Amino acid sequence: MMRLMRWPAALTVLLASFVWQLLLSGMATLRIILSPRLAARPALLRYEFAPMSEAGAALLACLVTLTPGTTVVDIDMASRSLLLHVLDGADGAATADAIRRHFERHVRVLCGRPA
Fold first, then answer.
1. Burial zone of 19 (CB within 10 Å; 0-12 exposed, 13-18 middle, 19+ buried)
2. Spatial distance between the Cα atoms of 57 and 81, rounded to a whole number of angstroms
3. Can you tell me the distance from the alpha carbon of 18 to that of 16, in angstroms, rounded to the nearest whole number?
4. Average pLDDT over residues 63-76
5. Selection from 114, 113, 115, 100 nearest residue 14 by Cα
6. For the whole model, what pTM was predicted?
7. Alpha helical stretches, state H, 35-102
């Protein structure tokens, strides 16, 4: 019952957070593209997520991929991780923290834990 009451709030916050992150990431990506002095530091990062269903992992991967500057290359359910290609990999911990704060916790409410 509690999960059903949290679902609409999680969806609303996730959508608002996604739109905000879309704008911020778009501006950061545009800045890197248009400014020759800002060197892009592309990197592959491994992001470990909390236990969730396959649907939750797929939704998380879609949100990350739709955010400019990041692409999910692989979803590994066995190790509960995403392999990310990021345009600016200078601070992998900050990237992981942003995904966890803005997307993952809300996806877990929406999609639940694995069966």
1. exposed
2. 9
3. 5
4. 96
5. 100
6. 0.87
7. 54-66, 92-99
Q: In this predicted structure, what is the pLDDT of residue 3? A: 53
Yes or no: say if 53 and 103 are a contact pair by the CB < 8 Å rule: no
Q: Which helix (H) or strand (E) holds 76?
A: strand 70-76
Give every CB contact of residue 73 below 8 A, 6+ residues apart in sequence.
44, 83, 84, 85
- Calculate helix-pair angle for 2-34, 54-66, nearest 10 degrees: 30
**Rounded Cα–Cα distance for residues 67 and 111 (Å):** 20
Buried b (16+ CB within 10 A) or exposed e, 3-12: eeeeeeebee
